[in-house]
């Protein structure tokens, strides 16, 4: 006969399953972190040596990154075994509008304000992208709570580093991405084992 | 819970519980499906920590009752069975959870 103890045990069981569902990213999606971790230091190092090539590389790479991100997202749907269109829509809106909006705002600032130019434009876009990452960390994926502030702080302090500042920032961001990827994978494994 | 209070629970919630959802795997599957458009069999199995055989049998009962819709497809030449919550399943889950809430409130624990 169903009694209250049995109901509690069943609800505990369901709660465990729901908690596992809430935990972490599937492995496929984490690969996106490693793609950016490989890409960002190359583009940022170029900023220290050849700004023209860097601008070309970073702009092209951003477009390639978006396509790669969409492919990873589609593949991870099959691997993760979850179709959640609402979350997919939120992710696309967040990243496309967040990253695209940051870059558009940065270009608009540089275009309308003559005093806003040079390395300063790069710093501002890095800080804004850090905010976009932080927001994703607050609402969706806690591993981004580390990466967002790293980007924001890096964008500010890069002007204080006398030599190879962008290279240093690129390496720090790559480290942050790798750390976020490892944290996300560990969190996912921990949740599934619980 | 004393015998007296257990007897008091019956009219307030027990009779409204959906018999099909009194099995925790079936209840768990519907709760998980309520938060996604669809989930694969293997994902449900991993989240619910059930064996293939047991989960397959429980999901078949939900399918026969019209609580879940089933769709099969191939990805990378591997078959994937997707489950999604039907309208009837969502209504049944809502009613069952409401009955559980009444039970717990009545038990005063």
Spell out the blueprint of helices and strands:
The complex is a heterodimer of chains A (194) and B (109).
Chain A: H1 4-22, H2 27-49, H3 51-80, E1 82-83, H4 85-112, H5 119-139, H6 144-157, H7 165-193
Chain B: H1 3-12, H2 24-33, E1 38-40, H3 41-48, H4 52-64, E2 68-75, E3 78-85, H5 87-107
Task: Describe the protein in words.
The complex is a heterodimer of chains A (about 190) and B (about 110). Chain A has about 190 residues and is mostly helical. Chain A is built from seven helices and one strand; from the N terminus they run αααβαααα. Chain A has helices at about 5-20, 25-50, 50-80, 85-110, 120-140, 145-155, 165-194, and one strand at about 80-85. The model of chain A has no long low-confidence stretch (mean pLDDT about 85). Chain B is built from five helices and three strands, in the order ααβααββα. Chain B has helices at about 5-10, 25-35, 40-50, 50-65, 85-105; strands at about 40, 70-75, 80-85. Chain B has a three-stranded antiparallel sheet. Classes of the chains: A mainly alpha (about 190), B alpha+beta (about 110). The interface of A and B includes residues 3, 9, 80, 84 and 86 of A.
What value does the Rg of chain B take, in angstroms?
16 Å
Helix content of chain B: 55-70%
- Return residue spans of chain A where pLDDT drops below 50 for at least 5 consecutive residues: none
Largest interface: A-B, 24 and 35 residues
Helix content of chain A: over 70%
